[in-house]
């Protein structure tokens, strides 16, 4: 795909590439945002003078630390921990922690960079950050997970704080891991500082709906995109990749709103179940027993498991990538379009390559980029911080209503910005410009820091 940028933006991008060698995903995330910003610089030349874009592309701070731990055989294991505080113009650094063997500084920086704009779009007072480790939780015992989380937090705790940096979960980090991380933070700091982590257990400071929020929010965003096209989710045939936290709650909300999900996956393969995915079974396999999605087929003779399969080959009307970055390549996008897909809602972060995005936009699909579509998770994290600060605990209905309102607001502001900048229906440009303007104005107000 040919990316056209002004000479000024080209130069900024070239510098990002040369200052951050080998960080392909970070370059991709930066390029995607820069590509939308030409008209903003024309309209607001002061941002060029203040070099706001160059400053946003440079993390405020980044830590890499050793995470030593002992496995169940008593052997010493060593992993690498990362935390990037990317931008605090709107609030404390906020963003998840990912445990996956593919984690590197470049991956954390791409996620942290995206997080700046996503968090700005929520309208809450949160800056952008991200962290993680190349630790692989697969096949580890509960004790190993606990020891690893304790060592990870020992390295990280001194950099955190409810007004400084507030991590949450991401791939490989769910309620169990947040519990161990919080326990160690409490022990190290001698403080019961609830607001230092989000995604906590309901019952000890967690917010209702946080577990469901990213998935539910993505579906609400999709509902709004369809509404703008006078369409609904009712009866739509959907694919949802992955079978983790985000995927499970996308499926749940889709089923509640009358859509039919016929396939989901994990990193080993795809389950196709034309009668509709049995969500209680997926929850049991993944959330309770921590098994592979292949086992789903043992319980449903009508379901088909395709080892190493590509979920995007299955004909559908709506696709929800909810596993990982760059999982939809150009060919997958073309296949989805050929098979009649009319809309894509990104639950995962940056799951579509730039070439894939180009195809979706060219074909006129309703395409909801992750920055806008999956912001419900972090928005509910901010609500968790709000409840912690006021020592309050909201009901499920109240919290979900607020989440729904936030997703509608994100949709409408992104859509209005796209229209204002002459690209109606282009949620990519709308999200990038709207998020950027909020951060840029705050940075301008705070002076050169
Ligand atoms: P989980 O760890 O709960 O689930 C991840 C799912 O995706 C699993 O089914 C996993 O399969 C699959 N997966 C992960 N990596 C790969 C890969 N390289 N190839 C194929 N499949 C893969 O994570 P989440 O559901 O929390 O996160 C999913 C996505 O959503 C990520 O992009 C994350 O950044 C994004 N996100 C998450 C938020 C949250 O609140 N949790 C908020 C906003 C975005 P397997 O088990 O086989 O690895």
Commentary on this structure:
The chain is an alpha/beta fold. The protein folds into three domains: 7-56, no CATH class; 61-192, Leucine Dehydrogenase, chain A, domain 1 (Rossmann fold); 214-373, NAD(P)-binding Rossmann-like Domain (Rossmann fold, 3-Layer(aba) Sandwich). It is built from 18 helices and twelve strands. α10 links the parallel β6 (237-240) and β7. α16 (376-390) crosses α17 (396-420). NADPH dihydro-nicotinamide-adenine-dinucleotide phosphate binds at residues 96, 169-172, 174, 214, 242-247, 266-268, 322-324, 347-349, 374, 377.
Second-tier CATH architecture of the largest domain:
3-Layer(aba) Sandwich
Largest sheet properties: 7 strands, mixed
Which geometry do the CA atoms define?
globular
Helix content: 40-55%
Mean pLDDT: 97
**CA radius of gyration:** 21 Å
| Strand arrangement, major sheet | 9-8-7-6-10-11-12
Structure summary, number of beta strands: 12
Bound molecules: NADPH dihydro-nicotinamide-adenine-dinucleotide phosphate
Order of helices and strands: HHHHHEEEHEHEHHEHEEHHEEHEHEHHHH
State the separation between the terminal residues, measured CA to CA. Answer: 36 Å
Structural class: alpha/beta
- What is the fourth-level CATH superfamily of the largest domain? NAD(P)-binding Rossmann-like Domain
Number of helical regions: 18
Query: Which percent band covers the strand fraction?
Result: 5-15%
CATH fold descriptor of the largest domain: Rossmann fold
Q: Which stretches of 5+ consecutive residues score pLDDT under 50?
A: none
CATH class designation of the largest domain: Alpha Beta
Number of domains: 3
């Amino acid at each position: 795909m040919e990316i056209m940028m002004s000479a000024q933006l080209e130069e900024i991008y070239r510098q990002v590439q040369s200052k951050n060698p080998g960080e392909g995903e970070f370059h991709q995330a930066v390029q995607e945002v820069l590509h939308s910003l030409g008209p903003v610089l024309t309209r607001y030349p002061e941002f060029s003078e203040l070099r706001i874009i160059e400053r946003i592309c440079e993390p405020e701070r980044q830590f890499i630390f050793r995470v030593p731990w002992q496995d169940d055989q008593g052997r010493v294991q060593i992993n690498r921990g990362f935390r990037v505080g990317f931008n605090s113009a709107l609030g404390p650094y906020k963003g998840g922690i990912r445990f996956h063997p593919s984690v590197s500084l470049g991956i954390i920086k791409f996620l942290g960079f995206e997080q700046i704009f996503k968090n700005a779009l929520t309208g809450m007072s949160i800056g952008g950050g991200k962290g993680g480790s190349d630790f692989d939780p697969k096949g580890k015992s509960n004790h190993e997970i606990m020891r690893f989380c304790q060592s990870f937090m020992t390295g990280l705790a001194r950099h955190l704080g409810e007004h400084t940096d507030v991590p949450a979960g991401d791939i490989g980090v769910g309620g169990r891991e947040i519990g161990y991380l919080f326990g160690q933070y409490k022990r190290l700091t001698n403080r019961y500082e609830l607001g230092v982590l989000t995604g906590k257990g309901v019952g000890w400071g967690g917010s209702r709906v946080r577990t469901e929020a990213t998935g539910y929010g993505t579906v609400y965003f999709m509902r709004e995109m369809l509404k703008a096209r006078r369409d609904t989710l009712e009866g739509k045939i959907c694919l949802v990749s992955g079978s983790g936290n985000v995927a499970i709650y996308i499926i749940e909300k889709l089923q509640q709103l009358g859509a039919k999900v016929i396939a989901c996956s994990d990193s080993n393969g795809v389950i196709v179940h034309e009668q509709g995915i049995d969500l209680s079974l997926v929850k049991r396999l993944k959330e309770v027993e921590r098994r592979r999605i292949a086992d789903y087929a043992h319980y449903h003779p009508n379901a088909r498991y395709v080892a190493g399969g590509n979920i995007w080959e299955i004909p559908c009307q709506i696709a929800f990538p909810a596993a990982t970055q760059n999982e939809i390549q150009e060919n997958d996008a073309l296949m989805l379009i050929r098979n009649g897909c009319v809309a894509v809602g990104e639950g995962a972060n940056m799951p579509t390559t730039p070439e894939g995005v180009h195809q979706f936009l060219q074909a006129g699909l309703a395409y909801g980029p992750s920055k806008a579509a999956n912001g419900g998770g972090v928005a509910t994290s901010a609500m968790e911080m709000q409840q912690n600060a006021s020592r309050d605990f909201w009901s499920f209905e109240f919290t979900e209503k607020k989440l729904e309102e936030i997703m509608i607001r994100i949709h409408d502001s992104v859509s209005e910005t796209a229209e204002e900048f002459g690209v109606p229906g282009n949620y990519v440009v709308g999200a990038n410009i709207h998020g950027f303007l909020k951060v840029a104005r705050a940075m301008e107000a705070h002076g050169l820091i």
